[in-house]
Amino acid sequence: MLAAYLALDRKHAKIQINDYFGAIYLTSRDGLVGFWKESAMLDAFARTACDLGHPPWFYWIEFHHALKKKTYGDGMLMPYSKELASIFLHATRLAHEASRATKAKAEVRVEHFVISVAAHKQVEFARRLVTSGLDLKKLHKTIGRNGAKQMTLSTPLSE
């Protein structure tokens, strides 16, 4: 819901990668920070690539007010961009692969999403992500521990 709010605030017709990643950053920074070499690098990337010019609390207050005033939400559906849909497909495949290996319920986790964005090399956001201080080795190791194969970056994405 926060990703849709960010997209609407930016006048996007669809939820873009930077909207969704920005929402993850605002709601689950702790889940992301472990995959960056330094937390300041993650913060700098999120501020620039996700167009988050204000401190996180600002977005929470604005979002809260929008929900309270009922100017946002209430059954609204917003489509994903083509690139974001492809990233979700890739992340879902990784989660399914991990669930088969561990016999756990399939669940798309932050690491599945982040590595799927990184694999989407033809997209500028992905190229910026990979050069932002993201620790791909640690990300691969985490995904490997959770049952997914290490070859995730070479998995082709649908167009």
Share in helix: 55-70%
Order of helices and strands: HHHHHHHH
> How many domain modules?
2
* Residues in β-strands, percent: under 5%
Q: State Rg.
A: 16 Å
Write up this protein.
The protein is mostly helical. The chain has 2 domains: 2-68, no CATH class; 82-154, no CATH class. Helix content is 61%, strand content 0%. The protein is built from 8 helices and no strands. The protein is globular. The two termini are 26 Å apart. The relative contact order is 0.15.
Write the layout of secondary structure elements.
Elements: H1 2-9, H2 17-33, H3 39-49, H4 56-68, H5 82-102, H6 110-119, H7 124-130, H8 136-145
Helix pairs in contact: 1-2, 2-3, 2-6, 5-6, 6-8
Concise synopsis of the structure shown:
The protein is mainly α and 159 residues long. Helix content is 61%, strand content 0%.
Feature tags:
disordered C terminus, 2 domains, 8 helices, mainly alpha
